[in-house]
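Q: My labmate handed me this sequence with no annotations at all. I'd like to see what the chain might look like in three dimensions before we decide whether it's worth expressing. Could you predict it?
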Amino acid sequence: MYFRNRTDAGVQLAELLATYHTDECVVYALPRGGVPVAVPVAEYLQSPLDVVITCKIVHPGDPEYAIGAVSEDGAVYWNEHIRATLDASLCEEAVHEAREEAVRRQSVYRTNMTRLSCVGKVAIIVDDGIATGYTMRAALQSLIEEQPARLVCAVPVGPSDTLDNIRPLVDDLVVVAEVPSRFGAVGVYYDDFSQTSDEEVVALLRSVTS
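A: Here is what I predict for the chain of 210 residues:
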């Protein structure tokens, strides 16, 4: 195991982000699991914390298998190879469900409905790990449109092939542990990878912003 829990992963990640300590940064988390990782990062950098809401598009036959993601503005990012093998109506239904969940999360996590701006600032986006990378790509594309001075993706762990696909989208990719092959699930690299609840997300966000 690389990490005791998400907080430990965030502490280790924060140490690797020390070079940004003097910059004007905004830290963004992918909820739910990215929020407890991002809290130590935001506290260490003394930066505000917000969320970038994305939702997986799951395979119609396997709810654990992501085939894409939607961003909070409704944009869709697909694994086009898998999409081409599926019935169009099933794809539309999967996207509809993901968009509904994105709207729900926005209403729960961000009461003023307005994301913190990163225009002209360093935007650091954090998750508890990357597997397929769909939700991270959706989040990064959403932030790219805001034209930050620098865009940083920071994750505790991820597979080399997925990370290679992320690198062209960002100015800096910070990873504690890059796994070359046979990655498996993100939770394999944690002693405690218990699910983060909506209530925990809200409480953690308030703890940083209060």
